Amino acid sequence: MYRFGIAGIPLGSKGRTVKEAVENTFQLGLNHIEIQLFRISVQEREMRDFAGQTPKDLDEILLVDLLRGNEEGVFESVGVNSKIEEDDIGIELFWSMARDYKELSLARDVAKELDVKITLHTPYYVDFANDQKLIADSVQHTLWGGVIADALDSEFVITHLGLVEGDRKKGIKKTANTLKEIVSKYNSLGIKSKLCIENSGKDEVYGSDEEIEYLEKSVKGIKSITNISHIYSLRRDFPQDMDDFSSIIENTKKKDRPLYFEFSGVEFQDNNEYRITPIKRGNLKFEPLADSMASFDDELTVISFSPLLEHDALYMKVIFERSILKKIGKVVKPLPQ
Prior knowledge:
alpha/beta; TIM Barrel
Protein backbone atom coordinates (compact mmCIF):
# COMPACT_ATOMS: atom_id res chain seq x y z
CA MET A 1 0.00 0.00 0.00
CA TYR A 2 1.36 3.38 -0.99
CA ARG A 3 -0.18 6.61 0.21
CA PHE A 4 0.19 10.06 -1.30
CA GLY A 5 -1.05 13.13 0.48
CA ILE A 6 -0.65 16.80 1.25
CA ALA A 7 0.51 18.99 4.13
CA GLY A 8 -2.48 21.30 4.50
CA ILE A 9 -5.87 21.92 2.94
CA PRO A 10 -6.04 21.35 -0.84
CA LEU A 11 -5.41 24.66 -2.59
CA GLY A 12 -8.51 24.13 -4.72
CA SER A 13 -10.72 23.31 -1.75
CA LYS A 14 -13.76 25.54 -1.29
CA GLY A 15 -14.49 24.13 2.16
CA ARG A 16 -12.34 24.96 5.15
CA THR A 17 -13.33 22.32 7.71
CA VAL A 18 -11.43 19.10 8.43
CA LYS A 19 -14.31 17.04 7.00
CA GLU A 20 -14.36 19.03 3.77
CA ALA A 21 -10.58 18.85 3.48
CA VAL A 22 -10.74 15.06 3.84
CA GLU A 23 -13.46 14.81 1.20
CA ASN A 24 -11.54 17.06 -1.20
CA THR A 25 -8.39 15.01 -0.68
CA PHE A 26 -10.27 11.83 -1.58
CA GLN A 27 -11.90 13.45 -4.63
CA LEU A 28 -8.44 14.36 -5.90
CA GLY A 29 -7.38 10.71 -5.79
CA LEU A 30 -5.15 11.13 -2.72
CA ASN A 31 -5.42 9.21 0.55
CA HIS A 32 -3.53 11.11 3.25
CA ILE A 33 -3.83 14.61 4.68
CA GLU A 34 -1.58 16.33 7.21
CA ILE A 35 -3.78 18.83 9.03
CA GLN A 36 -1.98 22.03 10.07
CA LEU A 37 -2.78 23.45 13.52
CA PHE A 38 -2.41 27.12 12.61
CA ARG A 39 -4.28 30.32 13.33
CA ILE A 40 -5.74 29.21 16.62
CA SER A 41 -6.50 31.08 19.82
CA VAL A 42 -7.68 30.01 23.25
CA GLN A 43 -9.47 31.48 26.22
CA GLU A 44 -10.41 30.34 29.70
CA ARG A 45 -14.10 30.07 30.54
CA GLU A 46 -16.16 29.09 33.58
CA MET A 47 -17.85 25.72 33.18
CA ARG A 48 -20.60 26.07 35.78
CA ASP A 49 -23.36 25.91 33.16
CA PHE A 50 -22.01 22.63 31.73
CA ALA A 51 -21.56 20.63 34.96
CA GLY A 52 -22.25 16.92 34.54
CA GLN A 53 -21.47 16.86 30.83
CA THR A 54 -18.20 15.92 29.17
CA PRO A 55 -16.30 18.35 26.90
CA LYS A 56 -17.02 16.10 23.93
CA ASP A 57 -20.78 16.46 24.47
CA LEU A 58 -20.81 20.24 24.06
CA ASP A 59 -22.12 21.97 20.93
CA GLU A 60 -20.01 24.66 19.25
CA ILE A 61 -17.40 24.58 22.02
CA LEU A 62 -14.02 22.94 21.47
CA LEU A 63 -12.38 22.40 24.84
CA VAL A 64 -8.81 21.15 24.77
CA ASP A 65 -8.40 20.91 28.54
CA LEU A 66 -10.23 21.11 31.86
CA LEU A 67 -8.52 22.67 34.87
CA ARG A 68 -9.65 21.65 38.35
CA GLY A 69 -8.56 23.02 41.71
CA ASN A 70 -6.78 20.62 44.08
CA GLU A 71 -6.79 20.72 47.90
CA GLU A 72 -4.27 23.57 47.85
CA GLY A 73 -6.40 25.56 45.45
CA VAL A 74 -4.01 25.06 42.54
CA PHE A 75 -5.72 24.35 39.23
CA GLU A 76 -4.41 21.28 37.44
CA SER A 77 -5.24 19.61 34.13
CA VAL A 78 -7.72 16.73 34.23
CA GLY A 79 -8.14 16.36 30.46
CA VAL A 80 -11.20 16.33 28.23
CA ASN A 81 -12.37 12.82 29.12
CA SER A 82 -13.52 13.89 32.60
CA LYS A 83 -17.03 14.99 33.52
CA ILE A 84 -17.26 18.72 34.06
CA GLU A 85 -17.60 19.98 37.63
CA GLU A 86 -19.08 23.35 38.59
CA ASP A 87 -15.82 25.02 39.58
CA ASP A 88 -13.79 23.75 36.63
CA ILE A 89 -12.15 26.11 34.19
CA GLY A 90 -12.24 25.13 30.54
CA ILE A 91 -9.57 25.93 27.96
CA GLU A 92 -11.58 26.71 24.84
CA LEU A 93 -9.81 26.59 21.49
CA PHE A 94 -11.02 28.62 18.52
CA TRP A 95 -10.11 26.98 15.21
CA SER A 96 -11.68 27.62 11.84
CA MET A 97 -11.50 23.92 10.85
CA ALA A 98 -13.78 22.61 13.61
CA ARG A 99 -16.17 24.13 16.16
CA ASP A 100 -16.62 21.12 18.45
CA TYR A 101 -15.92 17.43 18.92
CA LYS A 102 -18.96 16.43 16.91
CA GLU A 103 -17.36 18.00 13.82
CA LEU A 104 -14.08 16.25 14.59
CA SER A 105 -15.90 12.92 15.04
CA LEU A 106 -17.69 13.38 11.72
CA ALA A 107 -14.39 14.14 9.98
CA ARG A 108 -12.85 11.04 11.60
CA ASP A 109 -15.72 8.82 10.45
CA VAL A 110 -15.66 10.20 6.90
CA ALA A 111 -11.88 9.67 6.73
CA LYS A 112 -12.26 6.05 7.79
CA GLU A 113 -15.03 5.46 5.27
CA LEU A 114 -12.97 6.98 2.44
CA ASP A 115 -9.69 5.39 3.64
CA VAL A 116 -8.00 8.77 3.99
CA LYS A 117 -5.48 8.82 6.82
CA ILE A 118 -5.02 11.95 8.92
CA THR A 119 -1.95 13.24 10.70
CA LEU A 120 -1.63 16.55 12.52
CA HIS A 121 1.24 19.06 12.42
CA THR A 122 1.71 21.52 15.26
CA PRO A 123 2.55 25.20 14.54
CA TYR A 124 5.86 25.48 12.69
CA TYR A 125 7.48 27.91 15.11
CA VAL A 126 8.21 26.16 18.39
CA ASP A 127 10.88 26.58 21.04
CA PHE A 128 11.61 23.61 23.28
CA ALA A 129 15.00 24.78 24.55
CA ASN A 130 15.45 28.54 24.97
CA ASP A 131 12.90 31.15 26.06
CA GLN A 132 10.81 29.84 28.98
CA LYS A 133 7.63 31.62 27.88
CA LEU A 134 7.97 30.23 24.35
CA ILE A 135 8.74 26.76 25.72
CA ALA A 136 5.55 26.85 27.80
CA ASP A 137 3.54 28.01 24.77
CA SER A 138 5.10 25.32 22.57
CA VAL A 139 4.27 22.62 25.12
CA GLN A 140 0.67 23.82 25.29
CA HIS A 141 0.27 23.90 21.50
CA THR A 142 1.71 20.39 21.25
CA LEU A 143 -0.68 19.16 23.94
CA TRP A 144 -3.67 20.77 22.24
CA GLY A 145 -2.52 19.23 18.97
CA GLY A 146 -2.47 15.84 20.69
CA VAL A 147 -6.01 16.28 22.00
CA ILE A 148 -7.32 17.17 18.53
CA ALA A 149 -5.29 14.42 16.84
CA ASP A 150 -6.66 11.89 19.30
CA ALA A 151 -10.23 12.97 18.49
CA LEU A 152 -9.44 12.45 14.79
CA ASP A 153 -7.83 9.03 15.42
CA SER A 154 -4.64 10.45 13.96
CA GLU A 155 -1.67 8.14 14.42
CA PHE A 156 0.91 10.94 14.54
CA VAL A 157 1.34 14.46 15.91
CA ILE A 158 4.31 15.99 14.07
CA THR A 159 6.44 18.81 15.42
CA HIS A 160 9.59 20.71 14.57
CA LEU A 161 12.17 21.28 17.32
CA GLY A 162 13.00 24.99 17.26
CA LEU A 163 15.93 27.31 16.62
CA VAL A 164 19.42 26.83 18.00
CA GLU A 165 20.46 29.60 20.40
CA GLY A 166 23.65 29.36 22.43
CA ASP A 167 25.24 26.01 23.30
CA ARG A 168 23.83 23.37 20.94
CA LYS A 169 24.48 20.37 23.20
CA LYS A 170 22.81 22.00 26.18
CA GLY A 171 19.91 23.01 23.97
CA ILE A 172 19.27 19.50 22.66
CA LYS A 173 19.36 18.11 26.21
CA LYS A 174 16.79 20.70 27.28
CA THR A 175 14.73 19.81 24.21
CA ALA A 176 14.79 16.17 25.35
CA ASN A 177 13.52 17.15 28.81
CA THR A 178 10.72 19.23 27.29
CA LEU A 179 9.67 16.36 25.01
CA LYS A 180 9.66 14.00 28.02
CA GLU A 181 7.25 16.39 29.73
CA ILE A 182 4.96 16.37 26.68
CA VAL A 183 5.00 12.56 26.36
CA SER A 184 4.25 12.23 30.07
CA LYS A 185 1.23 14.52 29.70
CA TYR A 186 0.09 12.63 26.59
CA ASN A 187 0.14 9.44 28.67
CA SER A 188 -1.65 10.96 31.66
CA LEU A 189 -4.36 12.41 29.41
CA GLY A 190 -4.82 9.13 27.53
CA ILE A 191 -3.72 10.55 24.19
CA LYS A 192 -3.04 7.64 21.85
CA SER A 193 -1.54 9.67 18.97
CA LYS A 194 2.22 9.29 18.79
CA LEU A 195 4.44 12.38 19.06
CA CYS A 196 6.77 12.51 16.04
CA ILE A 197 9.71 14.88 15.58
CA GLU A 198 10.76 16.09 12.14
CA ASN A 199 14.34 16.39 10.92
CA SER A 200 15.64 19.85 10.06
CA GLY A 201 16.72 21.36 6.75
CA LYS A 202 18.87 24.14 8.21
CA ASP A 203 21.90 24.20 10.50
CA GLU A 204 20.31 26.81 12.74
CA VAL A 205 17.34 24.56 13.53
CA TYR A 206 17.53 21.51 15.80
CA GLY A 207 16.98 18.22 14.01
CA SER A 208 20.24 16.96 12.50
CA ASP A 209 20.69 13.19 12.06
CA GLU A 210 22.66 12.96 15.30
CA GLU A 211 20.15 15.05 17.25
CA ILE A 212 17.18 13.02 16.01
CA GLU A 213 18.92 9.80 17.08
CA TYR A 214 19.81 11.30 20.47
CA LEU A 215 16.20 12.33 21.10
CA GLU A 216 14.83 8.95 20.00
CA LYS A 217 17.12 7.22 22.50
CA SER A 218 16.56 9.76 25.28
CA VAL A 219 12.78 10.19 25.11
CA LYS A 220 10.76 7.02 25.41
CA GLY A 221 7.56 7.13 23.40
CA ILE A 222 8.48 9.44 20.52
CA LYS A 223 9.08 8.61 16.87
CA SER A 224 10.53 10.60 13.97
CA ILE A 225 9.29 11.19 10.44
CA THR A 226 11.65 11.82 7.53
CA ASN A 227 11.59 14.99 5.48
CA ILE A 228 13.67 14.05 2.44
CA SER A 229 13.88 17.64 1.19
CA HIS A 230 15.44 18.62 4.52
CA ILE A 231 18.02 15.85 4.19
CA TYR A 232 18.91 17.21 0.78
CA SER A 233 19.07 20.79 2.07
CA LEU A 234 21.60 19.86 4.76
CA ARG A 235 23.78 17.54 2.62
CA ARG A 236 23.51 19.55 -0.62
CA ASP A 237 24.30 16.60 -2.91
CA PHE A 238 22.41 13.69 -1.30
CA PRO A 239 20.18 11.94 -2.21
CA GLN A 240 20.45 11.91 -5.99
CA ASP A 241 20.04 8.42 -7.44
CA MET A 242 17.85 5.40 -6.71
CA ASP A 243 20.43 3.79 -4.42
CA ASP A 244 20.62 6.96 -2.31
CA PHE A 245 16.88 6.96 -1.76
CA SER A 246 16.84 3.23 -1.10
CA SER A 247 19.44 3.74 1.63
CA ILE A 248 17.18 6.34 3.28
CA ILE A 249 14.19 3.97 3.25
CA GLU A 250 16.29 1.04 4.49
CA ASN A 251 17.75 3.19 7.27
CA THR A 252 14.24 4.29 8.26
CA LYS A 253 13.12 0.67 8.50
CA LYS A 254 16.26 -0.36 10.39
CA LYS A 255 15.64 2.30 13.04
CA ASP A 256 11.97 1.33 13.32
CA ARG A 257 10.76 4.76 12.23
CA PRO A 258 7.44 5.30 10.46
CA LEU A 259 7.77 5.00 6.68
CA TYR A 260 6.37 8.52 6.43
CA PHE A 261 8.23 10.84 4.07
CA GLU A 262 7.75 14.50 3.23
CA PHE A 263 8.90 15.75 -0.16
CA SER A 264 9.13 18.99 -2.11
CA GLY A 265 11.46 20.77 -4.49
CA VAL A 266 14.41 22.73 -3.07
CA GLU A 267 16.24 25.70 -4.58
CA PHE A 268 19.71 26.83 -3.53
CA GLN A 269 21.42 30.21 -3.62
CA ASP A 270 25.09 30.62 -2.70
CA ASN A 271 25.12 26.95 -1.61
CA ASN A 272 22.40 27.56 1.00
CA GLU A 273 18.76 26.57 0.92
CA TYR A 274 16.93 29.49 -0.66
CA ARG A 275 13.36 28.20 -0.57
CA ILE A 276 11.04 25.24 -0.85
CA THR A 277 9.71 25.18 -4.38
CA PRO A 278 7.51 23.13 -6.76
CA ILE A 279 9.16 19.82 -7.54
CA LYS A 280 9.76 20.50 -11.25
CA ARG A 281 11.62 23.74 -10.42
CA GLY A 282 13.80 22.34 -7.65
CA ASN A 283 17.20 20.64 -7.59
CA LEU A 284 15.82 17.54 -5.86
CA LYS A 285 14.18 15.08 -8.26
CA PHE A 286 11.37 12.68 -7.41
CA GLU A 287 11.90 10.08 -10.19
CA PRO A 288 14.72 8.15 -8.45
CA LEU A 289 12.71 8.08 -5.21
CA ALA A 290 9.74 6.67 -7.14
CA ASP A 291 11.94 3.93 -8.64
CA SER A 292 13.27 3.15 -5.18
CA MET A 293 9.80 3.00 -3.62
CA ALA A 294 8.65 0.58 -6.30
CA SER A 295 11.18 -1.96 -5.02
CA PHE A 296 9.71 -2.01 -1.49
CA ASP A 297 6.64 -3.96 -0.41
CA ASP A 298 6.04 -1.95 2.76
CA GLU A 299 3.29 0.64 3.25
CA LEU A 300 4.94 3.97 2.41
CA THR A 301 3.46 7.44 2.77
CA VAL A 302 4.70 10.46 0.80
CA ILE A 303 3.42 13.91 1.74
CA SER A 304 3.74 16.91 -0.57
CA PHE A 305 4.58 20.15 1.24
CA SER A 306 5.34 21.89 -2.04
CA PRO A 307 3.75 25.30 -2.73
CA LEU A 308 1.71 23.36 -5.31
CA LEU A 309 0.29 21.02 -2.69
CA GLU A 310 -2.11 18.67 -4.46
CA HIS A 311 -0.63 19.32 -7.92
CA ASP A 312 2.74 17.97 -6.82
CA ALA A 313 1.17 15.16 -4.76
CA LEU A 314 -0.63 13.96 -7.90
CA TYR A 315 2.51 14.47 -9.97
CA MET A 316 4.42 12.21 -7.57
CA LYS A 317 1.65 9.63 -7.69
CA VAL A 318 1.74 9.53 -11.51
CA ILE A 319 5.54 9.22 -11.56
CA PHE A 320 5.37 6.44 -8.99
CA GLU A 321 2.73 4.54 -10.97
CA ARG A 322 5.05 4.69 -13.99
CA SER A 323 7.83 3.23 -11.84
CA ILE A 324 5.53 0.39 -10.79
CA LEU A 325 4.69 -0.33 -14.44
CA LYS A 326 8.41 -0.37 -15.30
CA LYS A 327 9.01 -2.84 -12.48
CA ILE A 328 6.16 -5.06 -13.61
CA GLY A 329 7.47 -4.93 -17.18
CA LYS A 330 10.84 -6.25 -15.99
CA VAL A 331 9.33 -9.00 -13.86
CA VAL A 332 6.67 -10.33 -16.24
CA LYS A 333 8.07 -12.62 -18.90
CA PRO A 334 6.31 -13.10 -22.24
CA LEU A 335 4.32 -16.28 -22.61
CA PRO A 336 5.94 -18.98 -24.76
CA GLN A 337 4.65 -19.13 -28.34
